[in-house]
């Protein structure tokens, strides 16, 4: 079957660094997405990885290992506004997104 | 670019009535649009995949006669919740995929439906 696993909740301190892990099992693979979702709002796109390695985009970076079925989202210099849910989604061979349940990130001052 | 709009943003209706939600891609053509439902503190749940000019493909457990989807053009898809009941109260989100891009989905802002 197809499955995405990510932690339910994480807590970090303002100004620190946090890594949110995601493992996936899909029928075929066409890339891994990370989305940010604030409460009551729709998800917003953060990153897309289809090749192995690290993609850096400002304070956010995303890593992919296809052989391990593993990705992480790295958030640096955390700000209070980064408090949100972070959704990991893998795209299968039919270009359908398989969604994780999301990781709720709580930032403390 | 790649903006998707939804209308209405929120709606309150009485039990038994029908509600129509529109999803529009404003600056690109979307061959495929997706409809999701999200209950509080839960992840997105795909309801159906809508392809322009053809019938929607519904996920298992989603009643196609209750959730009517129409994708009449490359920029508009509609979801009609028929005979709505309180358990249909949820956050409904659409997303659209660009005609030339099989990867990224662009999300609308969502519609909050409350059925009394």
Overview of the molecule:
The complex is a heterodimer of chains A (109) and B (116). In chain A, 0% of the residues lie in helices and 57% in strands. With 109 residues, chain A is an all-beta fold. Chain A is globular. With 116 residues, chain B is an all-beta fold. Helices cover 0% and strands 54% of the residues of chain B. Chain B contains no helices and 11 strands. Chain B has strands at 4-7, 10-13, 19-25, 30-38, 45-51, 57-58, 67-73, 76-81, 90-98, 105-107, 111-115. In chain B, strand 9 (90-98) and strand 10 form a beta hairpin. The termini of chain B are far apart. The chains are: A mainly beta (109), B mainly beta (116). Chains A and B meet through strand 5 of A and strand 5, strand 9 and strand 10 of B.
Q: Rounded to an integer, what's the Rg of chain B over CA atoms?
A: 13 Å
From the alpha-carbon coordinates, what is the Rg of chain A to the nearest angstrom? Answer: 13 Å
Mean model confidence by pLDDT of chain A: 94
**Low-pLDDT segments, ≥5 res of chain A:** none
Mean pLDDT across all amino acids of chain B: 90
What is the ordering of alpha helices and beta strands of chain A?
EEEEEEEEEEE
Helix percent band of chain B: under 10%
């Amino acid at each position: 079957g197809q499955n995405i696993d990510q932690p339910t909740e994480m807590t970090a301190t303002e100004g620190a660094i946090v890594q949110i892990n995601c493992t996936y099992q899909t029928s075929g693979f066409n890339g891994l997405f990370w989305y940010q979702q604030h409460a009551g709002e729709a998800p917003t796109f953060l990153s897309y990885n289809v090749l192995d390695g690290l993609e850096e985009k400002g304070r956010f970076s995303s890593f992919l290992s296809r052989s391990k079925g593993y990705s992480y989202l790295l958030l640096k210099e955390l700000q209070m506004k980064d408090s949100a849910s972070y959704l990991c989604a893998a795209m299968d061979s039919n270009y359908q997104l398989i969604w994780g349940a999301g990781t709720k990130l709580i930032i403390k001052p | 670019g790649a903006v998707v709009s939804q209308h209405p943003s929120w709606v309150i209706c009485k039990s038994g009535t029908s509600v129509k939600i529109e999803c529009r891609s404003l600056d690109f053509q979307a061959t495929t649009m997706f409809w999701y439902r999200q209950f509080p503190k839960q992840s997105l749940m795909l309801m159906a995949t809508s392809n322009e000019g053809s019938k929607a493909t519904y996920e298992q457990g989603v009643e196609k006669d209750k959730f009517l989807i129409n994708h009449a053009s490359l920029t508009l898809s509609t979801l009609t919740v028929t005979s709505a009941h309180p358990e249909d109260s949820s956050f409904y989100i659409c997303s659209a995929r660009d005609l030339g891009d099989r990867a990224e989905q662009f999300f609308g802002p969502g519609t909050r439906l409350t059925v009394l």
